[in-house]
């Protein structure tokens, strides 16, 4: 299974923010939309990603408030990206090694979407469930053995 297949199932809703937006506004969007990340775009280019991890760090540093900073100050400005043709197992490996929960999907300089650890886990579970059903059907329809008498 490839990343492009996950994006097809997931749909094409994508939430973005500019780097100069107040962090408080970004946090409000994340809370209202019940999402864990916002892609940071500037002049049509991906310049970073803001996830709940960065927000938690800000809250910790500022004693429980987000303060008056902008997204640019706190975003991950070098996010790991993937292409639509990467296999899901490679994405799983990348996410685990880099401790990344959200990966922007890029086709050259075009942002196609974001896949989350949840999206990958769901896709893997669905693929395994399908394989299990097929194997069980195959076993259930296994031809009876015939015995040959000499």
Number of domains: 1
CATH class: Alpha Beta
User: Quick check: average pLDDT?
Assistant: 87
Stretches with pLDDT under 50, minimum 5 residues = none
Supply the number of helical segments. 6
* Gross morphology: elongated
Strands, count: 5
Provide the succession of SSEs.
HEHEEHHHEEH
Proportion of β residues?
Answer: 15-25%
Task: Give the structural class.
Answer: alpha+beta
Protein name: CBS domain-containing protein
Keywords: CBS domain
Pfam families: CBS (PF00571)
Structure characterization notes:
- It holds the Pfam family CBS.
- InterPro entries: CBS_dom, CBS_dom_sf, Diverse_CBS-Domain.
- This is CBS domain-containing protein.
- Keywords: CBS domain.
- The protein is α+β, with helices and mostly antiparallel strands.
- The chain has one domain: CBS-domain.
- The chain is built from 6 helices and 5 strands, in the order αβαββαααββα.
- The strands form 2 sheets. It has a 3-stranded mixed beta sheet with strand order 1-2-3. Strands 4-5 form a two-stranded antiparallel ribbon.
- α2 links the parallel β1 and β2.
- α5 packs across α6.
Annotate the secondary structure layout.
Blueprint: H1 3-10, E1 16-17, H2 23-33, E2 37-42, E3 45-51, H3 52-61, H4 71-74, H5 88-98, E4 102-107, E5 110-116, H6 117-140
Parallel strand pairs: 1-2
Antiparallel strand pairs: 2-3, 4-5
Helix pairs in contact: 5-6
Short description:
By secondary structure, the chain is of the alpha+beta class. Helix content is 45%, strand content 19%.
